[in-house]
Amino acid sequence: MDKEQSIINLFSHRLNGDDGAILGEFCFSKDLFIEGVHFKKEWLSSYEIGAKAALINLSDAFVMGAQPCYALCALSLPKTMPMNEINALCAGLKEVCASYGVKIIGGDTTKGDKISISLSIIAKTKRPILYRKRAKNGDFIAFSGELGNSLKGLKILQNGGFLAKNARFKKPVLRSNFIFLSARYLSSCMDISDGLLNDLPKLLKKHQRARLNKILSKFELLSGEEYEALFTFSPKNKPKIQNIAKKCRLKLNIIGQVTNARSNIPKFRAFSHF
């Protein structure tokens, strides 16, 4: 067991284990976005830092089929950070939230050595609610869009290069419309934040394995911070899922099936938070 899971287990609760916690009619979720861990300041403008922090937090609610309504925002910023950069960072946060109908209603601020942003998202649940670990053997495994571009962008930045404003590493694309339309036909769902290789086991029950029927590249398997939807569905719902993806002009990638048999996923050294 890795250190991240060990820490999560210290706070074990019946509501834990998904992208958000469902309590009554609401879904509560939270993510961190920290300089030196998730980004370097020279890689993103202040506006892009705020905008990406908002997007990755909203993603957790969407993949549970919930509609974000409110956010609490905690900011830790260097004392030497100029006010014009602070204004730009906050504009990124506010504008992305506003574009999804989310109001920032409170939070906290303090000084710190580096930029640290945390949002608590309060979302209204829809029916059905989407959880992890609800797939049945024989269900198809699929993801939306394309994987690999976030890791490619990261490597470009690490080598001193530059990325376009709409590059995946800078600006993830959330699939809320597809998720809301397809939710009734899905058996489980989550977003791909730590890479497909890391996240796929989290989607399945402990005794279940993924049997791939498609060859995936190392970039597709390992690329984190993609925020594409990773989901399962019954084979009988395949035509419906395909039609919804077509309606949303979204690439649908059916990559395998859920099984109790041995997995055939290639082994690479996967990402770890610690």
From TrEMBL:
Ranges of residues in domain PurM-like N-terminal: 17-122
Keyword flag GTP-binding: no
Lineage: Bacteria, Pseudomonadati, Campylobacterota, Epsilonproteobacteria, Campylobacterales
Stored InterPro entries: PurM-like_C_sf, PurM-like_N, PurM-like_N_sf, ThiL-like
Function: Catalyzes the ATP-dependent phosphorylation of thiamine-monophosphate (TMP) to form thiamine-pyrophosphate (TPP), the active form of vitamin B1.
Alphabetized UniProt keyword annotations: ATP-binding, Kinase, Magnesium, Metal-binding, Nucleotide-binding, Thiamine biosynthesis, Transferase
Organism per entry: Candidatus Campylobacter infans
Record-given protein name: Thiamine-monophosphate kinase
Superkingdom of the source species: Bacteria
Binding-site positions, Mg(2+) 3: D19, D60, D191
Pathway assigned to this chain's UniProt record: Cofactor biosynthesis; thiamine diphosphate biosynthesis; thiamine diphosphate from thiamine phosphate: step 1/1
Binding-site residues for Mg(2+) 2, renumbered to this chain: D31, D60
